[in-house]
Design goal:
The chain is of the alpha+beta class. It has helices spanning 20-36, 354-363, 399-402, 410-419, 421-424, 438-464, and strands spanning 49-54, 60-65, 69-76, 79-87, 93-99, 104-109, 114-118, 123-128, 135-140, 146-151, 155-160, 165-171, 177-182, 188-193, 197-202, 208-214, 219-224, 230-235, 240-244, 250-254, 261-267, 272-277, 281-286, 292-297, 303-309, 314-319, 324-327. It folds into two domains: 15-341, YVTN repeat-like/Quinoprotein amine dehydrogenase (Methylamine Dehydrogenase, Chain H), CATH 2.130.10; 354-462, Cytochrome Bc1 Complex, Chain D, domain 2. The structure holds heme C. Heme C is lined by residues 362-363, 365-367, 377-379, 381, 384, 389-390, 392, 397-398, 400-401, 408, 413, 417, 428-431, 444.
């Protein structure tokens, strides 16, 4: 079942007649409908979920998404509720973490910053700046005093949480760094990156200690096992290995994924560890015997985010869609539950017209054309023509758009993508992109004009089901 919207996968309407244009708009709509039904505000994410972290007591969770937001959740076996959507990043959120011992949280984003959030009054405290490329992972020390961030700028940075200042820049990796984790006592930090190495650092001095291990492929995830002597690592070639920190030797090789390992989780109390990958598989292992206990196969791969819920005894996971899903691995029901009926946003039919295809491929990951709610990383483009830039209610714009006097029309949106947002609306949060082909641009502009009308019709179809 969908953990965010509570929709049973089989409860969604089925359609027998597929008109290509209508269907693709419908696909966009259906994704947001179960979420909007609960109220006017869209609940849940408006883009792929990249990171999930359950609190240590299991009653709250943080999720980070491609839609630039972090959501703070209240979790219970009966259902989960949004406590607050935390808005403050200007790019996809790749990683989230609770800071132990105080009501703070961290998030790392494509915008190159680490956000520090106050969970008591649900506010952004500050954005820690220093990295020159995207922040791929964040972690907090067990005593809650140090924040660490890993970036594709080849550095790791340590931050003093109390003073909100940078204390060290850790240099040694070549290329992107993908994963960092503190040792259980907080004295060391372990990191893995594109250069295939796992490195060890001193968190007091910021000194490089040594390269523990070198793999032929990039290292995507590094976790510390509860014995504090071994690391659980997952790599780009799908390998899942147990690495002895002292000797730097692989002491056990687990069944590899058929694709990159994308997320992993270690639940000390339950004695379980899990991995997920680009192949859509989630595997749960016993840390005592390293036997594979459960395996789940989600046909809508990849699975980017993974966390255990102590309360419900389930795995929460997220991937390409905005839904955070639950898998009850103790039920014995494996492999079958994922045949969900939630339509895929990234499924295209080849005979759709050019404009629909342009919107689906280039825009739909960040925009819908839904009349109510429907904001993803960007605002809904429902009836965009005639609207002044930066005025859609309920969306937090950059200053560049908020104070712009552009009125959106075929001409101005045409210029936006002919010249690119960097030139036409400098300072905007919309990433750089241009559509150079005039034919494609015009098809897209025609689609945007039609979209509002189509939405009205498809809403009627929807309510008949
Ligand atoms: C990776 C995410 C992303 C993609 C892809 C994207 N946008 Fe955006 N878009 C945004 C964001 C974020 C904003 C808000 C910008 C701001 O506040 O500065 C935005 C704003 C806009 C606006 C201004 C809306 C308003 O209310 O003023 C228009 C128009 C727009 N986008 C059209 C498009 C179209 C058409 C496409 C596809 C060709 C597209 N965007 C692709 C993220 C995206």
């Amino acid at each position: 079942m969908c953990w965010i919207c509570g929709a049973k996968k089989t409860g969604l309407p089925k359609f027998s007649v597929i008109s290509s244009v209508l269907m693709s708009v419908l696909n966009l709509l259906l994704i947001s409908l179960p979420l909007t039904r609960a109220g006017a505000e869209v609940q849940g994410h408006g883009g792929p979920v990249k990171s999930i972290m359950l609190s240590s007591d299991g009653y709250t969770a943080l999720t980070g998404s491609f839609d630039y937001t972090v959501i703070y959740w209240a979790i219970s076996p009966a259902g989960s509720k949004v406590i607050k959507r935390l808005i403050g990043h200007d790019g996809a959120v790749n990683s989230v973490a609770f800071v132990p011992g105080n009501a703070l949280a961290l998030s790392g984003s494509d915008d190159g910053t680490v956000a520090l959030w106050q969970l008591g009054d649900l506010k952004l405290v500050t954005r820690l700046k220093g990295h020159s490329a995207k922040v791929s992972d964040v972690a907090a020390s067990p005593d809650g005093r140090i924040a660490a961030s890993a970036s594709w700028d080849s550095t790791i940075r340590l931050w003093d949480i109390a003073t909100k200042s940078q204390t060290a820049v850790l240099k040694g990796h070549r290329g992107n760094i993908n994963s960092i984790v503190f040792s259980s006592d907080g004295k060391f930090l372990y990191s893995g990156g594109y250069d295939g190495t796992v490195k060890m650092w001193d968190t007091t001095s910021g000194d490089f200690i040594r390269t523990i291990y070198k793999h032929g492929w990039g290292v995507n995830v590094v976790r510390v096992l509860p014995d504090n002597q071994n690391l659980f690592i997952g790599t780009l070639d799908g390998a899942v290995n147990i690495l002895d920190i002292e000797s730097g030797r692989i002491v056990r090789r687990l069944k590899p994924h058929e694709g990159p390992v994308l997320a992993s989780f270690v639940a000390a109390e339950s004695g379980l560890a899990a991995t997920s990958g680009g192949d859509g598989k989630i595997r749960v292992w016993s840390m005592k015997t390293w036997k594979l206990l459960y395996q789940y196969d989600d046909p809508y791969r990849p699975i980017w985010a993974l966390s255990f819920s102590k309360n419900t005894g389930r795995v929460l996971y997220g991937g390409l869609d905005e839904h955070v899903l639950e898998w009850d691995f103790t039920s014995g029901k494996q492999f079958n539950e994922a045949r969900r009926k939630i339509p895929r946003r990234f499924k295209f039919v080849n005979d759709e017209d050019l404009g629909t295809r342009q919107f689906a491929r280039r825009c739909s990951v960040c925009h819908t054309v839904a009349p109510d709610g429907g904001n993803r990383a960007g605002p809904s483009l429902y009836r965009i023509y005639g609207r002044r830039a930066g005025t859609r209610a309920g969306y937090v714009y950059s200053r560049a758009l908020k104070y712009s006097d552009i009125i959106w029309s075929k001409k101005t949106i045409g210029r936006l993508f002919n010249e690119g947002p960097a030139k036409y609306t400098p300072g905007s949060k919309m990433p750089l992109q241009r559509i150079q082909s005039k034919e494609e641009r015009e098809a897209l502009l025609a689609f945007l004009e039609k979209a509002g009308e189509l939405v009205k019709k498809t809403t009627t179809v929807q309510s008949e089901n």
